[in-house]
Design goal:
194 residues; two-stranded antiparallel ribbon; 8 helices; 47% helix; globular
Length: 194
């Protein structure tokens, strides 16, 4: 980039013309950066509070149970959607309407947490795609607990706060971001093998 800029400035200053063009590699880097910035812009305009009703069966991304525009946009954003969801984890903004069955109250932060957990759950609905991302492990609940999901989350928040949830997810992101990819067949985020 500096080489191009320097050659162009020299050409202007000394009255010549500049035929310096970015290399193929530089062009691809610029295109990838532009795509990333465009995706980030599209993702940041998503309002999780407008998600609509999520059925209690399956994962939020399972098309046989849910077909939600917000989810489609997050998936289209690829792994760049993960930092966006993490940024929403501390939000106390109340979501209007019955979004999650059997939940008394749902905030944007609750919703971001649920979406992240579903996005990292395999198609059997029982196994996380990254170790430690079951509700029980993440929220430090006794294994086999029959507590409702909302109660598990509220208990953790009352003990540790939403900031701790965000910090834990941030660590997951930082440790795995280079290896993450969306598996369209299984409709979840997975890790590329080492």
């Amino acid at each position: 980039m500096n080489r191009i800029l320097n050659a162009s400035i020299a050409a202007i200053l000394f009255g010549g013309s500049s035929n310096v063009r970015p290399s193929n590699i530089e062009s691809r880097v610029f295109q990838a950066k532009d795509r990333f910035q465009e995706r980030a812009k599209q993702i940041s305009s998503i309002d999780l509070a407008k998600i609509g009703h999520i059925t209690s069966k399956g994962r939020v991304q399972d098309l046989e149970y849910n077909h939600l525009e917000v989810i489609d946009r997050l998936i289209a954003g690829g792994k760049e959607s993960i930092p966006f969801l993490i940024s929403q984890l501390e939000s106390e903004k109340k979501v209007q309407g019955q979004v999650l069955d059997l939940w008394y109250k749902v905030t944007v932060g609750d919703l971001a947490f649920c979406l992240l957990m579903d996005f990292f759950t395999d198609p059997t609905w029982t196994k996380p795609t990254i170790t430690g991302l079951t509700w029980e492990e993440f929220l430090e609940v006794e294994k086999g607990s029959d507590q409702a999901a909302e109660y598990k989350l509220r208990s953790y928040i009352s003990k540790h706060g939403r900031r701790q949830i965000k910090a834990k997810w941030q660590r997951v992101w930082e440790q795995n971001q280079e290896r993450l990819y969306w598996d369209e067949n299984d409709r979840c985020f997975k890790l590329k093998p080492l």
